[in-house]
Amino acid sequence: MEKVTWKATLLPGKRAEYIRRHDEIWPEMKQVLSDAGIVNYTIWRCGDDLFGYYECTLGKAHADKVQGESPIVERWNEYMKDVM
Asked: How many Å apart are CA 8 and CA 34, to the nearest integer?
């Protein structure tokens, strides 16, 4: 199993909106992550910095491919770009 980490920064004043959107993560986005073999996905906030961690049960290459080809992930990224 491969492990992945990432870091991002929230845009100024967008913390509450970021939290609201993640509290309402779309079921279809959860399904894409499952299809990609992603488990144990956790995101921590430290001020406006975000640190993410997840494990890829089917390998990082598979997870990257599934996410990269998903219109759901593309739509999620567009949805989130004004907060981070």
From this structure: 22
pTM of the predicted model, to two decimals?
Answer: 0.86
| Per-residue model confidence as pLDDT tens digits over 47-58 | 999 999 999 999
Report how far residue 75's alpha carbon sits from residue 32's, in angstroms, rounded to the nearest whole number: 12
Instruction: Answer yes or no: are the C-beta atoms of 54 and 32 closer than 8 Å.
Output: no
CB 43 within 8 A of CB 19: no
E strands in 2-80: 2-9, 38-46, 49-56
Which stretches of the chain drop beneath a pLDDT of 50?
Answer: none
What is the set of active-site residues? Answer: 22
